[in-house]
Amino acid sequence: MEKAMIFHRAINEYAYGYDDQTIHLVLQTKHKDAEKVELIYGDPYDFEQKTWNYVTVPVERTGETTTVDYYKAKVKPPNNRMRYGFKLTGYNGEEVFYLERGTFAAPSKEIGDYFCFPYFHPNDEYQAPDWVKDTVWYQIFPERFKNGEPSISPRDAVAWEEGVVTPKSYYGGDLQGVIDGLDYLEDLGINGIYFTPIFKSPSNHKYDTIDYYEIDPHFGDKKTFKRLVEACHSRGIRVMLDAVFNHSGYEFEPFQDVLKNEQASKYKDWFHMHDFPVQTEPKPNYETFGFVSRMPKLNTQNKEVQNYLLDVSKYWVEVFDIDGWRLDVANEVDHRFWRKFRDAVKGVKEDVYIVGEVWHDSMSWLRGDEFDAVMNYPLVDSLIRYIEEQSIDKQTFKERIVHLLHMYPQHVTEHLFNILASHDTARLITQTGDSIDKAKLLYLFQFSYPGSPCIYYGDEIGMVGGEEPESRGCMIWDKERQDLELRTFIQTLIHLRKTETGFSNEATFTFVETSDESLTYQKETTNEQLIFIINPTAEPIRVSDYKGDLLLYSTEDQILNGYGYCVIKQEK
């Protein structure tokens, strides 16, 4: 066996407490290098004479790529503590013992050679709200969802859907409009709403906040927002707000004071000022979001800034009973601040959901002391590249998903915020080249994959639009112009997600090898398994004759038409 390819560390995604009794241990090896993997473990103090007492149990292979295999052991540590190692047996009978201090030809007699899980403290482990795993989210860009109170619309707002959407367009969408649309959302089946920012701001997108304690007057007031939250909760719908703590808006009062008083401003250390006088052109001499001079970066290492933002974060939970915070540009804010943020909001409401906007590997934020989840951009990127662009083949796609399933601890994956499109991307139908059939395949995978799925407003009725601002068009309320068949398909997925255990986070996800171009995977529980078959090509595919109940299908025989799908339920 190739010993250099064997890898495990007793931290992060390789060793973690999954629940209050079970520890998961993940080992990585060269692909097809080990015929069998076993875990050796025991209490580090359990000795007879000078012999350590341990047990050996088999370890399941949970994923494979063309280069590596993944194995996962699920054990209850004796007396909440343990030392452990791995025994690998090659196809030629070779045995390798992989321990913290290297590889051995036989089990080491020195307890210090083994990996150590010193003591299992559940409060040190990752914990996230259970309700999230059963939530289907709906993202709303408030200015474009529905105009419920025209009297508070901006003066330059135009009629709904009129003209070309620009970065400065206003149409008058507001919070009352969301209240008016709750019947529609409840009928769709969603049970969580994620709002892009609703706080006072001069823009239509509100990512340049000027008052974190006030609802933007063009959206409504605090009484309206309170009614909205209460109306959502009465229908079993959770509410998550967007927090923009990386930067403020240009008109934010502390920054205006810096502009006015320059170096004498008592707020100069609230921001990252390079020198004075302040200049905005051609490039700002202070740190910003990107190089946008109207979005000065907040100094979250400053105690006054910390206190201000932490008070804001608690205020909306305490007074309005919101259920979650989505954190904008979360990876550019220091870790110490996010740890304080978590303690602050969880201290008010323990099951608040915290989601960070991070577009890359996010393990350093997901250790249990900062975020509950991140937005799962790697998932949608792989899906689009495989099904729409066809820039990666089936094997590459499967390897990316296998890697993603092992990138984080299992319970982290179960809480990830899974999107297909958002206000920061083109709309899903546009991404698929205006193909409803391809979009359905993407939705099917999203709703059967571990995590918490989210629908971008209007995507469920086939709205189109390129990169923002085009993707931020007005919600189409005229049923004659809605794709009602697509909406019904998504309603069905939401229903299956809620009623079929195989669609949920309780079922394990694995790929099934096939000799054709179909993508086949299964979700398995103790009593049943669901077989998912997707045809990502334009050509018909004959699929294997699986026995079971058809839960969802685009054809009734063994031929999957181009971009067809089939879900089969089998009893075990």
Automatic annotation (TrEMBL):
Pfam families: Alpha-amylase, Alpha-amylase_N. Keywords: Glycosidase, Hydrolase. Residues 139-497 form the Glycosyl hydrolase family 13 catalytic domain. This is Alpha-glycosidase. It comes from Halolactibacillus halophilus. The gene is nplT.
